[in-house]
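Hi X.,

You mentioned you wanted examples for the new student's onboarding notes, showing what a folding record looks like when two proteins sit in one file. Here is a clean example. The first protein comes first, with its sequence line followed by its structure tokens.
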Amino acid sequence: MSKYIAAIDQGTSSTRFIVFDQNGQIAAVDQKEHKQFYPQSGWVEHDPMEIWIRTQEVILNALQKSGIHPSEIAALGITNQRETTVMWDRTTGQPLHPAIVWQDTRTAGFCQELAKDGGQDRLREKTGLPLATYFSGPKIKWLMENSTVVAEAVRNGTALAGTIDSWLIWNLTGGKNGGLHITDGSNASRTLLMNLQTRQWDDGLLNLMGVPSSILPEIRPSSQVYGEARGILEGVPIASVLGDQQAALFGQTCFSPGEAKNTYGTGCFMLMNTGEQPVPSHSGLLTTFGYQLEGKPPVYCLEGSIAISGALIQWLRDNLGIIQQSSEIEPLARSVDNNGGAFIVPAFSGLFAPYWRSDARGVIVGLTRFVNRGHIARAALEATAYQTREVLDAMRSDSGINLQSLKVDGGMVVNDLLMQFQADILNVPVTRPKIAETTSLGAAYAAGLAVGFWKSLDELRAKWAPEKTWTPAMATGDRDRLFSGWKKAVTRSFDWIDD
């Protein structure tokens, strides 16, 4: 009798393997970080082989520590950092180039060139996305034009391209010995190559980017038995694929239109379920694929993507040495009563929603001799909350829905100071669930549904429970004054990078 569902959560900075029981409780877990490479300003890369090795290590470690045997696992779900792009050789199984990470800005010139004809939103009607360095299609084009190894493999018909989910599934199901080359709509919709209505690769978009369809994965439902794993998880059905933010939406059981969640990780991502039809955004949000259960209509979302949130705290730790560990940020920020008039706009790789300005760069403004380390720490935390407020305002404008509360998850939600300030600046309650691993849980839920481990969305919804809620406690005048200061600070980050 299979007692568990497992999930691989391959994130921007680390890979985790989590095994859940019938109640959605964690039965086993292991996690390992992988290296971040910054070859030059604006470039961010990962080593795909290191990610694959780390994936195998965390699976093995979690099983060994817990004593769980693969035969006890009913299915495996996969969730992944989105937009990060890998190209590899189907005959050797080796990457053809380092993976280009979603934060990378090397495709800015190409995106600007495309925008000259029809503007930055010329592809929104088909894709729901603006032309931006964030997305995968331009990354594939860059690799084909700038790597002779990639170009030769494409000519020879041995090249494969995909996001991290496709790379992992291909390896998990046999790699060069018959590995499956697939993805789902939540990842494919982030490429600028998929048509949101047909949920297939679009010939017009492929021609525009110069990407051959032969190198791309087959687009499948997010919850479906695709095949069986080989190796460590021999025989375990692989039964779900979801980009990390859509997985968190699923794990937070936001199954009804108007329900929303915000994930606080390396970046920050708010998704609102908008139902079975895409809702166009006129406020700088992304219209994106949410999830699709086998045999069911697709569910779409509005998304506000923020490039830098937790990464700003890492920057204070690793680049400036203001803190030694990320956990030190809250007590340091609590050492002062406010931000001292300082604001940090962390546009390290431009600004994402709702601005989409690749010319922006990070700024710290409002500095005086009064400002100290505590004020900088507080301003860093507040930056995430302000950016979330901008996204929520845009969602209200596009959807006409006033959120009554916001479900939150991700590594930063353990920070009580940030969560209280988030509730204050949004003026809505903010709720953290009891089961905090919502990204992995969403992938597990989707896999479990595919194999009948869980029977319905209602069963999953019944498992969701709040752990803590923060309610707004800030005076309206203070809220308006702080947010006005933030908006002014954002304008100071514009036009820093010339064409």
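Then the second protein repeats the pattern, sequence line and then tokens:
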Amino acid sequence: MSPFVLSVLKYALVALLYFFIFRALRSVATDLSGRRAPSNQGQGPKASKSKAKAPRGGRAPTTLVVHAPEARKPRSVRLSDGLEIGRAEACQVRLEDTYASQHHAKLSTRDGAWMLEDLGSTNGTYLNDRRVGAPTEVHAGDVVRIGKTVLELRR
């Protein structure tokens, strides 16, 4: 090979290496900035409610549909007393998602409403593409994302 071709290949490799480092640092910065939970101090009880509106008028959900990435078809779980979601054997909704924590999140009833709570998971729990920082009321039509798994609340 000619020295010119070798030089072009060498500079192309260096450019790709810098591009990879840039993307990795940008990903880390985005992840860290998304982890900051908003402060609710001094804002009263309304601050812990989700800012995302329920698409179907705020009706209470009765079924949880689990769309796992490796499953061929979704499975449905009837909402009863309360459900713990995670990879642990003790969880009522067991996920095979490596991005989910052992005890990741919990769905429970409080004063007739369903509440979603993150249990200190590493990768977070997202309700309608917003990270859950405090117990948040959920409604039929809301979408919960845990890792690569999507959980849909239905009536």
